[in-house]
User: Which sequence fits this backbone?
């Protein structure tokens, strides 16, 4: 933790997609998942670049310890507190309501009933594999 040269920062849209893939998002009724308002919520959406040069300036140095160590972090250029809160709200909504627009969610439809995913576009379907050997312990 004390080494400012250790670690990695991921783009916000890649974090959202990694959670969806890792937690096995299911979408039976809709052939394509549609994410809504991602530019406003997390500052980024795939194939929606603000300029032809992409999202990030390669020489961007954030404030704090990385900047003091003269490290660059282009991905940090779009992250501010409202977008961090938008990311967290969207992740909590994805877990609680599925892919809907409830409480800042990333989906298009409103289905705000906790654990009932029928009004959302998709839901996270990951479950831990059952291991019979663990019952004997």
Assistant:
């Amino acid at each position: 933790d004390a080494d400012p040269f250790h670690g990695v920062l991921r783009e916000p849209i890649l974090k959202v997609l990694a959670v969806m893939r890792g937690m096995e998002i299911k979408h039976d009724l809709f052939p394509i998942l549609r994410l809504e308002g991602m530019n406003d919520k997390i500052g980024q959406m795939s194939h929606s670049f603000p300029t032809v040069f992409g999202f990030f300036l390669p020489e961007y140095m954030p404030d704090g310890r990385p900047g003091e160590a003269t490290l660059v972090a282009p991905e940090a250029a779009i992250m501010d507190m409202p977008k961090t809160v938008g990311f967290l709200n969207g992740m909590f909504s994805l877990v609680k309501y599925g892919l809907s627009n409830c409480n800042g969610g990333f989906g298009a439809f409103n289905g705000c009933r906790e654990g009932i995913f029928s009004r959302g576009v998709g839901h996270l379907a990951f479950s831990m594999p059952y291991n019979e050997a663990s019952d004997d312990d």
